[in-house]
Amino acid sequence: MKRRTFLTTTAGGAVATAAGLSAPAYATGKRKLKMVTTWPKKFPGLGTRAEEFAKDIETATDGRIRIKVYAGNELVPPLGAFDAVRGGKADIYHGSEYYWQGKHKAFSFFTAIPFGLTAMEQSQWLNYGGGQKLWDELSGKFNIKALACTNSGVQMGGWFKKEMNSVEDFKGLRMRIPGLGGEVLKRLGATPVTKAGGEIYLALSQGNIDASEWVGPWNDLAFGFHNITKYYYTSAFQEPGAAIAAGFNLDVWNSLSKADQAIIKAVAGDNYQKSLAEFNSRNAASLRVLVEKHGVLLRTYSDEILIALARTSDEVMQEIATTDDLTKRIYNSYMDTRRAAMEWRAIADEPYLRSRHLYENFGKRL
Description:
Blueprint lengths: L2 H6 L5 H8 L9 E7 L9 H14 L4 E6 L10 H6 L5 E4 L23 H10 L2 H10 L3 E8 L6 E3 L13 E3 L2 H9 L3 E3 L3 H9 L5 E2 L4 H7 L7 E3 L9 E7 H6 L2 H35 L4 E3 L3 H19 L3 H23 L1 H8 L10
Parallel strand pairs: 1-2, 1-3, 6-7, 6-8, 9-11
Antiparallel strand pairs: 3-10, 4-10, 5-8, 5-9
Helix pairs in contact: 2-11, 3-11, 5-6, 6-13, 7-12, 9-11, 12-13
């Protein structure tokens, strides 16, 4: 794709204007940056999106910024990406912010929280609800500038070796589930485990864990979880719209021209939208394969379980909100957007989506 074409299809061409005004500065030199990811190499939708993000930046900057992408464990371990960028060993990471909740609890808000925002609502918060400014304040404490550049959409509840019929079934369950969802299940008697994607299959197959959530049908099919267990739960309370971040070393980010920063922001926004469309398309096709070819059994949590999960999630979030002043401000801002989005969607999206199911014969293939 030519640079001019790319820029006119992102951010309404606004970045193209900025680039045109700053053209003389572009000849000053080229940058070669290193990106570390938390994903296996070429992993569908996540590892591949990191590659696309890097490629789009190179295209949009006429090759001035080139990014070498390292998959998890190629340069640093997946969960070491944050510290690698913070300390200057790498320039950018591509990963989930909730992996860093050990650094600060508030990072989870910028990936997903239980019963939180959908992908589009997350974008609403970041761009029009003050979320990005708060993210800058949080990540700046760690010498990071982070941008949302991918979203996997609504995720699945996970793979289980037994049916989950009541809240009691969570007691003693060893489940790979990072972020705040893990804390919620812990309070219901489960043992949450954090493992990078490439470690899940072995842990599940060897019996080191009893269950695992990952992403959705597209990614889960690629990992082959259906070869271990057939119970696949919907109702992903823990990640209703998981945003993935590109985190830049703040010194590196500040060394870029304003024009290049604007280009990168536009590329991140474009990748966010494209990734969501890709996940929606691939997940639908992959779910059919899992069910029709591999005999996977779809299950949904009962209302009893969902209410218990919601009640416990609310307790967890309110406790986290009192951690410090910044977390409280992030919490209040996030929940303000959640309430506003729920009010609007209750009279817009939800009635329409219900209406589509009333007449099932509509739109039959000709």
